[in-house]
Hints:
Chain A is of the alpha/beta class. Chain A is about 35% helix and about 20% strand. The termini of chain A are far apart. Chain B has twelve helices and no strands. In chain B, helix 6 packs antiparallel against helix 7, helix 8 (about 170-195) runs parallel beside helix 12 and helix 9 (about 200-225) packs across helix 10 (about 230-245).
Amino acid sequence: MNDLPRRSGAEAGAAVAVEGLSKVFPVPFRRKSITAVRDLNLRVEAGEVYGLLGPNGSGKSTTLKIILGLAAPTRGRTKIFGRDSSLVESRQAVGFLPENPYFYKFLTGEETLRFFGKLCRVNGSRLKSRVRELLELVGLTNARDQRLSTYSKGMLQRIGLAQALINEPKLVVLDEPTAGVDPAGSRDIRNLIVDLKQRGITVLLSSHLLTQVQEICDRVGILARGVLVREGHLEELIAIENRCELVLENASEALVKEIEKLATNSNARLIDRRKSTTTLERLFLEATQESESSAKHAK
Amino acid sequence: MSERLHRGFSPARIFAISINTLIELTRQKVFYVLLLFALLLIGCSVFMARFTFQQEFQILKDISLGAMSIFSALLAIVGTARLIPQDIDDRTVYTILAKPIPRFEYLLGKLFGVLLLLAISIALMSALFVVVLYVRERTVLNETLRQMSRAPGEQLDAAVNAIRAAGLNIDILTGVAVIYLKACLLAALTLFVSTFATTNIFTVVVMVFVYFIGHLQATAREYWLEEQSAGWVARTFLAIVALIFPDLQAFNLVDEIVAGVAIPLVLLAKTALLGIFYTAIYTLAATFVFYGKEL
């Protein structure tokens, strides 16, 4: 067995450490190059959900690929639990779901998990029980014998998430995990991520779907043209220092008027007053669930 | 599991990738089309014109071994060309290499999958060829025995021995083994080309050129070096060609086998070593390029 590199004290707590990372792609046959990532420093602490945000082409996927050792950095270095990403053993405790994953379509859901399990040296009864657990976790037990060619986009994302968890990773890297998935599937994946966090698994995800990121991430970093332009705890980043919100239920018109009067008499300024609304996503989910349950009753 | 130490080399992982690759290849229609053509050709060779039994057996061996050689080469090239680019296009390679798997294990798994497919295909073609040859040999033997029923014993023995010598013999297995080695070499070379090629078509086209150059280079070398007084430029050029391209003519032992010439063991060993050497070198080159590849 190989000796694993020792982790330094400062890095032991960091699930992912990126130091001075730059990635430049030369353009063939031209004296030009494209800088995908520029002098990036970030740290994902163990146990947190970190969201790497940014528009298309901002360098999110490139950063994730370098962290996973799939691409080499031009400058700087990346570490996973203190081990250099270029080392194969750094991926021992990592699960990865790429953007729009395609798996071998000729395999069934169960065969796919068995294949990836064998690659991680999970064998025998351990593999069998792990496959069963994961199929249940991602809600694909009934589709276990279906070929992946018949899976919907959401089902593919879920089987992708299951394969990422086959080796019981301590870090899960998700590249646009809900891209192209319908709201119900998207919510399932979001719930799974929350579940991973509760199990103490570190999650590093990239996305440009900001509402979802806001719901599940502890910290976020915003990339623009390869540069980290903002980073921090979500509440700190999105809070507006000199404003607060009151949400009242069953408040009489007189009480609301009284509050408005109090605000006017002090130095505060009432900016907005409106009826509370639900989100369009929640409305969509409720409507589709109602329709499904009435169809079931009709049967 | 996460805490388990990583093992640098795992035959089990390579085996898992190989079996998966084999299944992937057998799902391609081209595999069945090629195999069907080869089997049809071998099966139909029994209906070829018959003059003497020696000629019949020669034609049968010539067509069957030739078909096995060409179709196994085509399978090796077409089957291998799309494996890596397809995995990259589908991003399947990301999910595999994001696991603790060294790139050389992934490549070896892919290559062994192709070699398994080639072994199965060649075994199927050989089985049909042997059955056809055996049936024809029995028929000729029975006919000869009937026709020569009143001939003296020594004459009959000589005729039977001549039939057996021209029919099924161990040299056929030697020929099949050399055909397999050549297909392995071509698969490894295709894998190497596919690690830097941008499209499958490019890989296949390059391999078709390599196939022809590989077969012609020995003749060219012979002509330039022995019949012409080649200058240092021609000699250097030929040396470079010989280094880069495999000498596929060295694997062409079919003519000798068809003619009934016994293949010396030394020649067989040399050819086998050459095949293994080329396959290993191209696999190493593929690994070297693939390690530097940005995915």
